[in-house]
Amino acid sequence: MEKIILDVDTGIDDALAIILAEESGQLDILGITAVNGNVPVDTVMTNTKKMIQLMKQDSYTVYRGASRPLVRDAFHEFLVHGRDGLGGALAGMEVEPGDPQLFAPDFIIEQVKKYPGEVTLIMVGPLTNLALAIQKAPEALKKVKQVVIMGGLVQKAGFGNTLPTSEFNIFADAEAARIVFHAGLPVKLISLDVTTQTFLTREHIEQLKGTYYYDFVLKSTEIYRKYTKEKLGMDGCALHDPLTVGVVLDPTLVKTAKYYVDVETKGELSYGQTICDFRNLLKKEPNVEICLDVDAERFVEMFLKVLGKKEVR
């Protein structure tokens, strides 16, 4: 099984990504690292522990990471995920207090050193933890197998979800993203260009009725689906973070190509924009594998099949 570290800012789609990673049975989850993002890092820690409890797992440790971006003030997305980050779905669940002493970036460094060339980092939140790890141990991080990132927007400028040209995870810490993109690591970017095509509708959710995760998926996505309905007129939500896990499970879900990609960190209207040099105008070596297309229907089918196989007991 592929060894992975999941780096999350656990809101709703992070939670669904965690379930997909676990229930797929194909991934060796070395640990989960928490980062400030959709909600503050304290809430991320609580939510991630709740997900582990929901999945009836006790073998995963959650490592606390960065509580703020490298340079800017913290930015959150309560409108999409609710104040608690999970749309109130697990409001009554209690989790054990206390966290490991090891800082999340240090855990990433430790595992990449321990398993050189074997660890895939699945990053579905802002990239602060990885940027801090790179700054501390740049040569060690080059031993990572691959870095698969949910973030950015490269082909559809104007269709961002934070600024017109910017996606939330990159916008939330663009300086960190820039460090990661230029660190010489094998980066694959799962951007809004493809994640917005993987749409979970209310009808899809009903296919899970009678299975273990039905109630959680229905309740947790309620606020997210309401937000989407107000914005797009559709009752559903994009599976941004789950697709990122899905691409690790099955790389053929997406069509990719490698280009030079940089991150805007200064523009008032374009902060956090991921700029892809499709025409090689900058004459720089490609550094990021981007997604050009996705088999969205096949991925949604995979997602429903994996979550639906767990029965209520």
From TrEMBL:
GO cellular component, one term: cytosol
InterPro entries from the UniProt entry: Inosine/uridine_hydrolase_dom, IUNH, Ribo_hydro-like
UniProt entry tagged with the keyword Hydrolase: yes
Top-level division of the source organism's lineage: Bacteria
GO BP annotations listed: purine nucleoside catabolic process
One Pfam family hit: IU_nuc_hydro
Record-annotated Inosine/uridine-preferring nucleoside hydrolase domain positions: 4-301
Keywords per UniProt: Glycosidase, Hydrolase
Record has Transmembrane helix as a keyword: no
Gene Ontology molecular function: purine nucleosidase activity
PANTHER family attached to this UniProt entry: INOSINE-URIDINE PREFERRING NUCLEOSIDE HYDROLASE (PTHR12304), URIDINE NUCLEOSIDASE (PTHR12304:SF4)
Name of protein: Nucleoside hydrolase
Organism field: Cerasibacillus terrae
Higher taxonomy: Bacteria, Bacillati, Bacillota, Bacilli, Bacillales
